[in-house]
Design brief:
Layout (H helix, E strand, L loop, with lengths): L1 H23 L8 H14 L12 H30 L14 H18 L8 E5 L6 H10 L4 E6 L2 H9 L11 E5 L14 E4 L7 H14 L5 E6 L13 H6 L2 E7 L8 E7 L25 E2 L5 H21 L1
Parallel strand pairs: 1-2, 1-4, 2-3, 4-5, 6-8
Antiparallel strand pairs: 5-7, 6-7
Keywords: S-adenosyl-L-methionine, Transferase
Catalytic activity: 3 S-adenosyl-L-methionine = nicotianamine + 3 S-methyl-5'-thioadenosine + 3 H(+)
EC number: 2.5.1.43
């Protein structure tokens, strides 16, 4: 089995290395048929479950991976800017978000994050104010959370790029509900201090602090300034998806002054892993509040690696709908 896994890992690393070389040779990472085709092939190769542990690859593969993540970040930024400009041309941009090819992924990721917060944060969540750090020119996560899950919450979106914030703010100009609860700030997270204490939940985007040491510094900074009891949602990656996004070590979150409540590695089209933590003066690991743990360790104890929230209710609803459609078809016949 080990030999089979080694062959599978070697074949995957060889494929990813070839794709990295092809992407690096592109004259531009702006959306185009060539760019779209290569990144589609890359994502298709990385999303299926894989035995690869990218943190244990050799120096050459690590250097390739770091370069690939930077290219993915640049391409993602250009793709979002392109579609943000396109959406801004409509009278009400929020009515046309489905034009973005990965919009459904944001819907599913935000739903997962909300469900994990509600499931694992003691007492549940009803945040008055949320910060999203690294919101970008298409702040889909904030929009989905505000529109579908947190209808009474104010959202402060932070990004290093002023142009990204200008693009993002234009998308909400015609909306009197969600738009009234969205604000955009150009700032480095390292420069935020006292204002962090006013948030009940802070979301940290996957590409904020791409190097492991930079991510750890960002988390430690949040731990130094967030309010006790506030929740932190960190986007990470797992398995071969670590070629696309940085992997966050839960120990860095614990050492940053948080209690890690849950770690979730989706196995569907949600590419990012999600880590739920809570700021605490006296960091301790008390185990799961609910759900199923399947292993994992941190510097201070067991980290609960959990399955995604059960979608049994959705399955039942879908089956019921299909049965009704079938029954109606029989009547019509």
């Amino acid at each position: 089995m080990a030999a089979q896994n080694n062959k599978e890992v070697d074949a995957l690393v060889e494929k990813i290395t070839g794709l990295h070389a092809a992407i690096a040779k592109l004259p531009s990472l702006n959306p185009s048929p060539d760019v779209d085709a290569l990144f589609t092939e890359l994502v298709t190769a990385c999303v299926p479950p894989s035995p690869v542990d990218v943190t244990k690859l050799g120096p050459g593969a690590q250097e390739m991976r770091e370069g690939l993540i930077r290219l993915c970040s640049e391409a993602e930024g250009k793709l979002e800017a392109h579609y943000s400009d396109m959406l801004a041309a409509f009278d009400n941009p929020l009515d046309h978000l489905g034009m973005f090819p990965y919009y459904s992924n944001y819907i599913n990721l935000s739903k997962l994050e909300y469900e994990l917060l509600a499931r694992y944060v003691p007492g549940g969540i009803a945040p008055a104010r949320v910060a999203f750090i690294g919101s970008g020119p298409l702040p889909f996560s904030s929009f989905v959370l505000a529109a579908r899950h947190l209808p009474d919450t104010m959202f402060d979106n932070y990004d290093l790029c002023g142009a990204a914030n200008d693009r993002a703010s234009k998308l909400f100009r015609a909306d009197t509900d969600v738009g009234a609860r969205m604000s955009f700030h150009t700032a480095d997270v390292a420069d935020l201090a006292g204002e962090l204490a006013k948030y009940d939940v802070v979301f940290l985007a996957a590409l904020v602090g791409m190097a492991a040491e930079d991510k750890a510094k960002v988390i430690a900074h949040l731990g130094a300034h967030m309010a006790d009891g506030a929740a932190l949602v960190v986007r990470s990656a797992h398995g071969a998806r670590g070629f696309l996004y940085p992997i966050v070590d839960p120990q860095d979150i614990t050492l940053g002054g948080f209690e890690v409540l849950a770690v979730c590695h989706p196995d569907d089209d949600v590419v990012n892993s999600v880590i739920i933590a809570q700021k605490s003066k006296d960091v301790h690991v008390s185990g799961l509040h609910s759900g199923r743990a399947v292993g994992g360790q941190s510097a201070r104890g067991t980290v609960p690696v959990v399955s995604p929230p059960c979608r049994f209710g959705e399955m039942v609803a879908e089956v019921t709908q299909k049965r009704e459609e079938f029954a109606n078809a029989e009547v019509a016949f």
